[in-house]
Amino acid sequence: MKISGNTILVTGGGTGIGRGLAEALQAKGNQVIIAGRRRAPLEEAAAANPGMAFATLDIDDPEDIRRFAREIVQAHPGLNVIVNNAGIMRVEEVLKNPDALAIAEATITTNLLGPIRLTSALLPHLLSKDEAAVVMVSSGLAFVPRADTPTYSATKAAIHSYSISLRHQLRGTPVQVIELAPPLVATDLTPGQRDNPRAMPLTDFITESVQLLENQLDGGEILVQRVMAQRTAEAQGKFQAVFDLINPR
Ligand SMILES: NC(=O)c1ccc[n+]([C@@H]2O[C@H](COP(=O)([O-])OP(=O)(O)OC[C@H]3O[C@@H](n4cnc5c(N)ncnc54)[C@H](OP(=O)(O)O)[C@@H]3O)[C@@H](O)[C@H]2O)c1
To answer: Fewest CB within a 10 Å sphere: which of 3, 37, 120, 133?
Structure first.
């Protein structure tokens, strides 16, 4: 995708990776709209970045997605890029958590059905543009799972697979499909993660990702160096070694 002159929606843009991407993309000369459920972080991010727009959205709710899609296109007819970044990550231990199934179902609704529903609602609009893009945020865990978050890891593997098929179906249209697969990044996605010394600092992740977006005009997968061990584990015959590293016995 071109790196400036777009109108970009970032779901989950009030915090973490979403906010980092929103700020970096605004600095590159894009109109950015951030969305999420909680108004406070959105307001705070918009106030800190004059010109950034925001709108509330509950990506778990199909009716709210339809309402949001109608309103966003009306308010921002130039919208040509969506970044499907909103997501949740919950530990789900099937032998210990009595609510493991509820966590699994909620995770699929937010992380998999959410981006599919929003993309489907906005695709006709994106197809009307000269240049457009759908960015899907997956994860290194799409390639080697974390066993205590089985459904989270599975939704990210599904997002990876979905992105490949969507890219194939949309070849020959103005809509590029880009997958952004972060490694462990220091955000509040899970308790204590922001202070995890093994996590990649957020600003480093955003800088490297936006550089890749800028240089990789043909889209494809945006993979920072830190995620390569997970992304290439299977192909290099190192799946079990990387799995054991991520999932100590
Ligand atoms: N940090 C990592 O290590 C890492 C690694 C790989 C992939 N990722 C992916 O990166 C994305 C961003 O995560 P993050 O690390 O930046 O964590 P985060 O700060 O917790 O961001 C998640 C965002 O999603 C929004 N969200 C959650 N449920 C939503 C819903 N039902 N409707 C609308 N928005 C919703 C949240 O806002 P509200 O709560 O206000 O709705 C929040 O802004 C996620 O897809 C995550 O899976 C993160």
So the answer is: 120
Q: CA 131, 135, 141: angle at the middle one, nearest 5?
A: 160
- Name the one residue in this structure whose structure tokens are 């103005």: 174
Residue 188: strand, helix, or coil: coil
The token duo for 81 is 């890029």
- Encoded tokens for 104: 């699994």
For ligand 1, atom 47: residue with the closest CA: 87
Distance 85 CA to ligand 1 centre (A): 6
Q: What is the full DSSP assignment across 58-127?
A: -TT-HHHHHHHHHHHHHH-TT--EEEE---------TTT-TTHHHHHHHHHIIIIIHHHHHHHHHHHHHH
The answer to whether the beta carbons of residues 179 and 222 sit under 8 Å apart is: yes
Percent of the chain with pLDDT over 90: 97
On the question of pLDDT at 217 being above 90, the answer is: no
